[in-house]
Design goal:
Immunoglobulin-like; single chain; 4-stranded mixed sheet; elongated; mainly beta; 256 residues
Amino acid sequence: MPPAIRFTLLAVLVALAALPASANAADATVTISGKAFGPTAVTVDPGSSVTWNWAGGTHNVHVTAGPETFDSGFKSAGGTYTRALTAPGTYRYQCDAHPDMQASVTVGAAAAGTPAPAAAPGPDLAPPRLRSVSVSRLAVVRATVSQPGTLSIRLLRGGRTLRRATAPLAAGVNRIPLAVRGLRRGSYRVRLEARDAHGRRSAPVVRSLLVSRAALARKTLAPKAPVAASAPAPPPAPPADDNGGANKGKGKTERP
């Protein structure tokens, strides 16, 4: 390489190195693919933005702990969500439909190597979650819910909603019989959504429902009332004599 060209190239490199870093250099990108966030931990400067890109599946980005909370809403492949973060601290987030999908964003001092102070424990801000949802051949829904609330039920066929109903939910395993009386036999769908006392909603769950003869004939039996103990029978009365009184003189000789 001729000396003149070498000198010119060196001068250009020195000039580029002297330029201030772009404000976007501190931004971060997270990819959502399968059932995982990647990377699971990023660090940015205050005022920088984090962009989440959906590569597959249906997920949301729900920040459950940190200086502030926010929710991207559920998106599918091709979706994107960008959020500028100004408050320093650690933002922990998850996908509500897949609670095992968890990750974090650290903003500020912790990005420079200083540990961020632990967040004080607060109330659980996560919406209710429906897990292990199934519908039996007798049209009974079985579902596990993370917290008590109300179950919203919609019976669907084609693009129409045929019936709506609600049912109370307890934390743990629940069994809710569906009201199918009066429906024609055949295939339906049931859409389920849990709501807690604060109005937070779970991700909707849709399951297949077969309305069969057995489901239509299903009866809900009330618990049987306890049977009261019967009172002991009174002892038999002594036989009456000819005078209408009890025969107390049995064995005695009557006087003439």
